[in-house]
Amino acid sequence: MHPNIRVLGKSLVANLLPTTLFEPTLELAEVKELFSTFVRVVEIENHSYCNRTCAFCPNAFIDRRSQNLIMEDALYERILDDLASIRYKQTLIWSRYHEPMAHVSIFERLGRARSRLPEAYLVLVSNGDYLNRETLRELECAGVNRLMLDLYLPEGRERVPAVIEDEKKKFSTRTGLELSPIGEFDYRCLGSSIQITMGIPCYTGEHVSTRGGLVDIASLHSYQRRAVCFNPLHSVVVDYNGKGMLCCQVRSDSAQQSSAVIGDLTQPGYTLFHFYRDLAPARAGLLAPGPKNGVCRTCKCLRRWPRQTGAAPCGGERNLSASRNAAAFPIGCSSHFPPPQVRVSVNL
Q1: Are 320 and 185 in contact (CB under 8 A)?
Q2: Which of 72, 155, 236, 336 is the most buried (most CB within 10 A)?
């Protein structure tokens, strides 16, 4: 599809959205209806820890290894309460900047989510380091629908055939899963009740996101996003500490991105619906074409979420070879299409 056609399509869609989505003082009953209608993904962290410090990720210089801070159970329960109150049927995903399987509490909490949200689509994004036959059984018993894995190879050897084959054999031996190719470096993992896919990433400047300006990419120094963004409409993102974030790219443990902290779910009486309402100004600004500033300035990401299907190839859901956590899909940008009717600027 030509980039200009895509931008035009997004602008037309934005024009058709109800204006209540952009009202920061809307009654909560109406907010809950909007949440039920438009939110496709709730993305959370179970804890803070990640066992890797990949060069393409801000975890390379923001400490996520020296300690592991677990999301308070009362907070997690309140998130489930909010979602259960609207019979949430969309995706609940454990991703962000942590490795979900790095703390044993994830298994019980997944089971609790399945019990409380029987119709939700439960997804984990993992580096696979903690996956073995035993942990796979625990994920299956917890009722996980989808597991999205990356198989990280030594830097500079990601495309060496002998290295790939050796690591694939080790993975299959450890997990008991059989790898079936669905792309040059993408695989469906067979042998589980969970839909599991795995990619072998090779990160280059073409495929890496700036993560809201935290990761330096020389080719994007002069770039400024103009395309609209639907993330604050379709997704709700909560860090392990209860901070409600603008989107999946940004993080609450970076002082540089403090303006991207929209809400705080640890505050008494503050719910996911208060947070979604507080995203209204950001929605208005990001759904208007034109220059984007702050953490959005260098963003070229188009987020694609896992579809709730039984066996669709992952290539149609995200570019496994290109990215992890937040997909870095180039977007065509143009400024000569009319903006949506709601014209509220935002400088995040």
Answers
A1: yes
A2: 236
Contacts of 9 (CB under 8 A, 6+ apart): none
pLDDT score for 328: 29
Q: Are 291 and 225 in contact (CB under 8 A)?
A: yes
Q: Which residues, given as ranges, of the chain have pLDDT below 50?
A: 5, 8, 309-348
User: How far is 327 from 280, CA to CA, in rounded Å?
Assistant: 23
User: Do residues 75 and 82 lie in contact, with contact meaning Cβ atoms separated by under 8 Å?
Assistant: no
Residue 72 burial (10 A CB sphere; 0-12, 13-18, 19+): middle
- CATH tag, 3-316: 3.20.20.70
User: Taking the model in full, what pTM does it have?
Assistant: 0.85
Widest Cα–Cα separation across the chain: 59
Check residue 335 and give its pLDDT. Answer: 24
Angle at which helix 73-85 crosses helix 105-116, to 10 degrees, equals 20
